[in-house]
Amino acid sequence: MAVVALGMLSVSTEIAWSAENPYLAISERNAFNLTSEPPPTRETAPPEPPRSEDIMLTGIYLHKGVERVALARVDTKKKAEPPTYLQLVAGEKKDGIEIVSIDKATGKVTIKEFGELRSLSFKENTFKTSVAKAPRKTSSRSSSSKSSSSSAAAKKAAEIRASIEKKRAEEAAKRSGGGSERSSRDELRERFANMSDADRQKYAQQMRERFSSQSRGSERSDRGDRGGNSDGRRGRGR
Known about the structure:
Blueprint (H helix, E strand, L loop, with lengths): L1 H19 L3 H6 L24 E10 L2 E9 L9 E6 L3 E2 L2 E7 L4 E6 L2 E6 L18 H54 L3 H41 L1
Antiparallel strand pairs: 1-2, 2-3, 4-5, 5-6, 6-7
Protein backbone atom coordinates (compact mmCIF):
# COMPACT_ATOMS: atom_id res chain seq x y z
CA MET A 1 0.00 0.00 0.00
CA ALA A 2 2.86 2.30 0.77
CA VAL A 3 4.39 1.74 -2.68
CA VAL A 4 1.13 2.46 -4.42
CA ALA A 5 0.72 5.57 -2.40
CA LEU A 6 4.23 6.79 -3.33
CA GLY A 7 3.58 6.11 -7.04
CA MET A 8 0.36 8.03 -7.01
CA LEU A 9 2.09 10.88 -5.22
CA SER A 10 4.87 11.12 -7.80
CA VAL A 11 2.42 11.07 -10.72
CA SER A 12 0.34 13.76 -9.14
CA THR A 13 3.51 15.82 -8.54
CA GLU A 14 4.64 15.51 -12.19
CA ILE A 15 1.18 16.45 -13.44
CA ALA A 16 1.17 19.47 -11.18
CA TRP A 17 4.76 20.54 -12.31
CA SER A 18 3.91 20.03 -15.96
CA ALA A 19 0.85 22.15 -15.51
CA GLU A 20 3.02 24.87 -14.02
CA ASN A 21 5.77 24.56 -16.83
CA PRO A 22 4.13 24.14 -20.29
CA TYR A 23 7.57 24.09 -22.11
CA LEU A 24 8.73 20.96 -20.42
CA ALA A 25 7.62 18.80 -23.36
CA ILE A 26 9.73 20.87 -25.80
CA SER A 27 12.88 20.54 -23.70
CA GLU A 28 12.45 16.84 -23.36
CA ARG A 29 11.97 16.40 -27.12
CA ASN A 30 15.19 18.48 -27.90
CA ALA A 31 14.32 19.12 -31.55
CA PHE A 32 17.50 21.23 -32.10
CA ASN A 33 19.90 18.67 -30.60
CA LEU A 34 21.02 21.09 -27.93
CA THR A 35 23.83 19.89 -25.70
CA SER A 36 25.86 21.38 -22.93
CA GLU A 37 29.15 20.85 -24.86
CA PRO A 38 30.08 23.05 -27.88
CA PRO A 39 30.25 21.30 -31.27
CA PRO A 40 33.74 20.33 -32.47
CA THR A 41 35.35 22.90 -34.82
CA ARG A 42 36.43 21.80 -38.29
CA GLU A 43 39.99 22.55 -39.28
CA THR A 44 39.90 24.70 -42.47
CA ALA A 45 42.87 25.28 -44.74
CA PRO A 46 44.36 28.80 -44.68
CA PRO A 47 43.31 31.02 -47.57
CA GLU A 48 45.59 30.92 -50.60
CA PRO A 49 47.73 33.99 -51.16
CA PRO A 50 46.73 36.23 -54.04
CA ARG A 51 48.15 35.09 -57.36
CA SER A 52 49.21 37.19 -60.28
CA GLU A 53 46.81 37.28 -63.17
CA ASP A 54 49.45 36.15 -65.65
CA ILE A 55 53.20 35.53 -65.95
CA MET A 56 55.04 36.15 -69.21
CA LEU A 57 58.42 34.73 -70.21
CA THR A 58 60.43 37.57 -71.74
CA GLY A 59 63.94 36.14 -71.98
CA ILE A 60 66.70 33.74 -70.95
CA TYR A 61 70.21 35.16 -70.76
CA LEU A 62 73.64 34.81 -69.14
CA HIS A 63 74.84 37.43 -66.65
CA LYS A 64 78.37 37.05 -65.26
CA GLY A 65 78.34 33.39 -66.24
CA VAL A 66 75.04 32.67 -64.47
CA GLU A 67 71.92 31.76 -66.44
CA ARG A 68 68.95 33.96 -65.62
CA VAL A 69 65.33 34.14 -66.67
CA ALA A 70 63.36 37.34 -67.21
CA LEU A 71 59.68 37.31 -66.26
CA ALA A 72 56.87 39.85 -66.39
CA ARG A 73 53.89 39.76 -64.03
CA VAL A 74 50.81 41.24 -65.68
CA ASP A 75 47.64 42.19 -63.83
CA THR A 76 44.85 42.20 -66.41
CA LYS A 77 42.51 43.91 -63.97
CA LYS A 78 44.80 46.93 -63.88
CA LYS A 79 45.63 47.50 -67.54
CA ALA A 80 46.83 51.04 -66.92
CA GLU A 81 49.66 49.85 -64.68
CA PRO A 82 52.86 48.55 -66.30
CA PRO A 83 53.97 44.93 -65.71
CA THR A 84 56.30 43.99 -62.87
CA TYR A 85 59.59 42.61 -64.20
CA LEU A 86 61.71 39.99 -62.43
CA GLN A 87 65.18 38.60 -63.22
CA LEU A 88 65.85 35.40 -61.29
CA VAL A 89 68.27 32.46 -61.34
CA ALA A 90 67.40 28.82 -60.79
CA GLY A 91 66.44 28.25 -57.15
CA GLU A 92 65.81 31.94 -56.46
CA LYS A 93 62.43 33.00 -55.05
CA LYS A 94 60.81 36.43 -55.07
CA ASP A 95 57.24 37.73 -54.69
CA GLY A 96 55.86 34.20 -54.44
CA ILE A 97 57.60 32.99 -57.62
CA GLU A 98 60.43 30.44 -57.47
CA ILE A 99 62.50 29.33 -60.46
CA VAL A 100 62.70 25.53 -60.49
CA SER A 101 64.56 24.91 -63.76
CA ILE A 102 65.71 26.78 -66.88
CA ASP A 103 66.04 25.05 -70.27
CA LYS A 104 67.48 27.52 -72.77
CA ALA A 105 67.67 24.96 -75.59
CA THR A 106 63.91 24.35 -75.65
CA GLY A 107 62.95 27.79 -74.38
CA LYS A 108 61.06 26.42 -71.39
CA VAL A 109 61.14 27.48 -67.74
CA THR A 110 59.55 25.67 -64.80
CA ILE A 111 58.43 27.86 -61.93
CA LYS A 112 56.63 27.38 -58.65
CA GLU A 113 53.98 30.04 -58.05
CA PHE A 114 52.90 30.03 -54.40
CA GLY A 115 53.75 26.32 -54.21
CA GLU A 116 52.10 25.32 -57.51
CA LEU A 117 54.28 24.18 -60.41
CA ARG A 118 53.87 25.93 -63.75
CA SER A 119 55.65 25.54 -67.07
CA LEU A 120 56.36 28.62 -69.20
CA SER A 121 57.55 28.69 -72.82
CA PHE A 122 58.28 31.28 -75.47
CA LYS A 123 55.60 29.71 -77.64
CA GLU A 124 52.67 30.12 -75.25
CA ASN A 125 53.72 32.58 -72.54
CA THR A 126 55.09 35.64 -74.33
CA PHE A 127 53.71 39.02 -75.30
CA LYS A 128 51.94 38.99 -78.63
CA THR A 129 53.62 41.05 -81.31
CA SER A 130 51.48 43.15 -83.60
CA VAL A 131 51.64 42.19 -87.29
CA ALA A 132 51.14 44.93 -89.85
CA LYS A 133 48.61 44.21 -92.56
CA ALA A 134 49.87 43.92 -96.10
CA PRO A 135 48.90 46.82 -98.37
CA ARG A 136 46.06 46.21 -100.75
CA LYS A 137 46.96 45.47 -104.34
CA THR A 138 45.86 48.17 -106.76
CA SER A 139 44.76 47.55 -110.30
CA SER A 140 47.23 47.54 -113.18
CA ARG A 141 45.59 50.59 -114.71
CA SER A 142 46.03 52.73 -111.65
CA SER A 143 49.61 51.54 -111.21
CA SER A 144 50.44 52.26 -114.86
CA SER A 145 48.85 55.71 -114.68
CA LYS A 146 50.76 56.47 -111.50
CA SER A 147 54.03 55.28 -113.05
CA SER A 148 53.48 57.36 -116.20
CA SER A 149 52.61 60.46 -114.20
CA SER A 150 55.60 59.94 -111.93
CA SER A 151 57.93 59.49 -114.94
CA ALA A 152 56.58 62.66 -116.56
CA ALA A 153 57.05 64.59 -113.34
CA ALA A 154 60.59 63.24 -112.98
CA LYS A 155 61.40 64.23 -116.58
CA LYS A 156 60.08 67.75 -116.05
CA ALA A 157 62.03 68.10 -112.82
CA ALA A 158 65.20 66.94 -114.61
CA GLU A 159 64.68 69.55 -117.34
CA ILE A 160 64.20 72.29 -114.76
CA ARG A 161 67.35 71.24 -112.94
CA ALA A 162 69.32 71.17 -116.22
CA SER A 163 68.18 74.69 -117.14
CA ILE A 164 69.08 75.98 -113.69
CA GLU A 165 72.53 74.39 -113.89
CA LYS A 166 73.08 75.89 -117.36
CA LYS A 167 72.20 79.38 -116.13
CA ARG A 168 74.50 78.99 -113.17
CA ALA A 169 77.35 77.86 -115.44
CA GLU A 170 76.84 80.83 -117.77
CA GLU A 171 76.81 83.27 -114.87
CA ALA A 172 79.94 81.67 -113.44
CA ALA A 173 81.69 81.94 -116.83
CA LYS A 174 80.76 85.61 -117.08
CA ARG A 175 82.03 86.27 -113.60
CA SER A 176 85.28 84.40 -114.28
CA GLY A 177 85.85 86.30 -117.59
CA GLY A 178 85.32 89.70 -116.03
CA GLY A 179 87.50 88.74 -113.14
CA SER A 180 90.35 87.64 -115.42
CA GLU A 181 90.24 90.95 -117.31
CA ARG A 182 90.29 92.88 -114.06
CA SER A 183 93.11 90.75 -112.70
CA SER A 184 95.22 91.27 -115.88
CA ARG A 185 94.67 95.03 -115.72
CA ASP A 186 95.56 95.14 -112.06
CA GLU A 187 98.64 93.02 -112.71
CA LEU A 188 99.75 95.35 -115.56
CA ARG A 189 99.29 98.42 -113.38
CA GLU A 190 101.23 96.87 -110.54
CA ARG A 191 104.00 95.82 -112.90
CA PHE A 192 104.22 99.31 -114.42
CA ALA A 193 104.30 100.92 -110.96
CA ASN A 194 107.22 98.71 -109.89
CA MET A 195 109.31 99.58 -113.00
CA SER A 196 112.25 101.97 -112.92
CA ASP A 197 112.27 105.15 -114.99
CA ALA A 198 114.44 103.59 -117.69
CA ASP A 199 112.20 100.52 -117.90
CA ARG A 200 109.13 102.72 -118.07
CA GLN A 201 110.60 104.73 -120.98
CA LYS A 202 111.59 101.52 -122.74
CA TYR A 203 108.13 100.02 -122.20
CA ALA A 204 106.51 103.24 -123.47
CA GLN A 205 108.71 103.15 -126.61
CA GLN A 206 107.71 99.52 -127.24
CA MET A 207 104.05 100.35 -126.88
CA ARG A 208 104.36 103.34 -129.28
CA GLU A 209 106.09 101.16 -131.89
CA ARG A 210 103.41 98.51 -131.51
CA PHE A 211 100.61 101.01 -131.94
CA SER A 212 102.37 102.65 -134.93
CA SER A 213 102.86 99.29 -136.68
CA GLN A 214 99.22 98.42 -136.07
CA SER A 215 98.15 101.78 -137.50
CA ARG A 216 100.35 101.30 -140.59
CA GLY A 217 98.86 97.90 -141.23
CA SER A 218 95.39 99.28 -140.97
CA GLU A 219 96.27 102.08 -143.44
CA ARG A 220 97.65 99.56 -145.92
CA SER A 221 94.53 97.46 -145.69
CA ASP A 222 92.43 100.54 -146.27
CA ARG A 223 94.47 101.47 -149.36
CA GLY A 224 94.10 97.96 -150.74
CA ASP A 225 90.40 98.10 -150.26
CA ARG A 226 90.26 101.45 -152.02
CA GLY A 227 92.38 100.19 -154.96
CA GLY A 228 90.21 97.19 -155.38
CA ASN A 229 87.16 99.34 -155.45
CA SER A 230 88.67 101.67 -158.10
CA ASP A 231 89.70 98.73 -160.29
CA GLY A 232 86.22 97.41 -160.09
CA ARG A 233 84.83 100.71 -161.16
CA ARG A 234 87.22 100.88 -164.14
CA GLY A 235 86.23 97.41 -165.23
CA ARG A 236 82.58 98.30 -165.10
CA GLY A 237 83.28 101.46 -167.16
CA ARG A 238 85.00 99.49 -169.88
